């Protein structure tokens, strides 16, 4: 009996000593954390990706993290209100693109918040035409604009959906100045609205995604709903990391055929324009840097262990961990490049 | 083929339905909220079991809304608004249990009608749904808005209240995610921070129907609660299926309307019961009884909103596009499992498709049994002394308002503002029912009207776009004419009564 008590005490002491660093780290972290996201949808890629990251972080840090799909405006407000570290945010390139396009409710995230590590890429941003469209490629579309034909492109203005459209106009301008006027936006809302714009013959090209539109590309050509990919904006290096089988009936090789360099939309006459939709964390500017560092370190360890990548790939995300410092430099460089494209088009129009 | 039917699968449907009914029955909690809260659980449950839970919550949540709508006059969910119009007057007459039984049976019938349609015609109906452009969707919303005239006690004041509701619904940003320009409009200076996203629907709804009713009661002095005998509970209740005699057409039409509205993405779930109610009144032999405790009104409303459940799954499973806010959450269950939803979904995933049909069927039967058995306890709510009941309702309203958008305090202020507005509205002769219908349908009407003009150029498109548009105009004109004739008849009857 005595021996047992002594053994138990020794075991408890050893366990407490071993757990000390973990407890010390956890003491800086709130027990409950709210992860707000810049989307109101729980069916979209932002929620899906955030749920994966929140799960992994909860387990690693031993805290509760709940994902709240409050939408961009309310998420930024919630983040700005809370400097205690109990609210963090996950969003993607929309956060700075909407600011560049001047959308209400979007401040400059680099100035007003602390940009944290990146976690994943959705390589799915795409442009599609009806199956019976005369346009077989982006080259056909640019040639049509040059020849004076009006090409209507359905987008959701002010962000990720518009950046490819801006790049298309920029490419048209570089190819034949003035032809960019023939590439006109059809401003719509959700993916459903963009598809409907195509089916109502209100748009010749629509912005979409591999995930949302791939099945429509597998329909027989005589089906009124059938579509074809003409452009996938992701970098080829990103798509090469996707599963070889691709998604549905579209293999990785098929995807690469619609992406740079095989499908070219020029950025400056030399390089192609590409766009990867990258997800990253955002923190309150006044939040304790130790909390941000703990999250960054934890994510680094999670990605080093390698299990999260499997879950991300199964959901057609490309794992993409960059530490907070690397992420800030990378995203700022990316933002500057797109700012140039947008200003070229604004100046020219 | 049916290996997915396991004890766990069935338990999840039953549990989901029960929790859904509770969520639906609490003012401020909705089916959408129940599904949102449970979504993360589905990752560990697997797709079929996860869907079993979510579909149970969906069916239960939509159905549970009728309980507070009938007993307290507070719609548990936005789609139960029209249930209050006749359910609550029946409860006030001491026929709450009968009204609940009618509502539950109508809900079951609506759910089954939509399920049969989903099972047999999903891909075909999806092909039909894509023929509805902005123009046709605007006309459907306009048709639903004609109910404002039909519901008004004083037509001029009713239409004014409805237009005021539309006006207030447009406060905030013209959202880019809906195809707007992202600009603020109708926002008073200094309130931009709070009103950037406008007033949220649910706090407005429970403010107008919940808080306002409590304020009115407080003004009158807290009355004594009813006894079980007064409200005809249990042995005192006199329910007979004969109440459904002559209502088969209403039941089928309302279930069909709910299903059809669900099939059209973006029209919105609340429109289903509103259109079903308008139709029931328009085609009724005794339309003057609507709004005063007419069982046909409850049948139309409940068959309509439960008809939505199967209908909203048609575009989800055939086009990858959700039919309403709750099915938008269901997409999350698919994406969390890495399953693509689109035009090939049913063919590529026969097991999941079968699991969904079975889950919907079991959930509807479970809803019928659970709610039917629980009626006498539900109905006893009105016997609770008001000095206990009202603070509890108020607390639930505040919690519901605060949680609906994941913890925004302004939503609680919205509840308070519209509670006071609802209380004052009665004194100013403003009409709440047309106001809230205008508030619900206003944003969709605006988007589809503006987008129709942007897309097609001029107003003539609303008359020339398609045969569907022409048919909708016939329904709109018919509804307005019937409302005007009814108003005239009511005025004549009133004058006759006064003279006599």
Taking the sheet with the most strands of chain A, its summary is: 6 strands, mixed
Ranges of chain B with pLDDT <50 over ≥5 residues?
none
Overall tally of domains of chain A: 2
* Cross-sheet strand order for the largest sheet of chain B: 1-2
Shape of chain B: globular
CATH topology of the largest domain in chain A: D-Maltodextrin-Binding Protein, domain 2
SSE layout and pairings?
The complex is a heterodimer of chains A (349) and B (500).
Chain A: H1 2-28, E1 32-37, H2 45-61, E2 64-68, H3 72-81, E3 87-91, H4 94-100, H5 109-112, E4 113-122, E5 125-130, H6 138-146, E6 151-155, H7 160-175, E7 183-187, H8 191-199, E8 205-209, H9 210-217, E9 227-232, H10 236-239, H11 252-257, E10 277-284, H12 289-305, H13 307-314, E11 318-322, H14 324-348
Parallel strand pairs in A: 1-2, 1-3, 6-7, 6-8
Antiparallel strand pairs in A: 3-10, 4-10, 4-11, 5-8, 5-9
Chain B: H1 7-25, H2 31-38, H3 42-45, H4 47-64, H5 66-71, H6 81-92, H7 96-129, H8 134-145, H9 147-151, H10 155-169, E1 172-173, E2 184-185, H11 192-195, H12 201-220, H13 248-263, H14 269-283, H15 295-311, H16 313-319, H17 325-336, H18 345-348, H19 350-379, H20 386-404, H21 409-427, H22 432-456, H23 461-464, H24 467-499
Antiparallel strand pairs in B: 1-2
Helix pairs in contact in B: 1-2, 1-4, 1-19, 2-4, 2-17, 4-15, 4-17, 4-19, 6-7, 6-15, 7-13, 7-15, 7-16, 7-19, 8-14, 8-22, 8-24, 10-22, 12-20, 12-21, 12-22, 13-14, 13-15, 14-15, 20-21
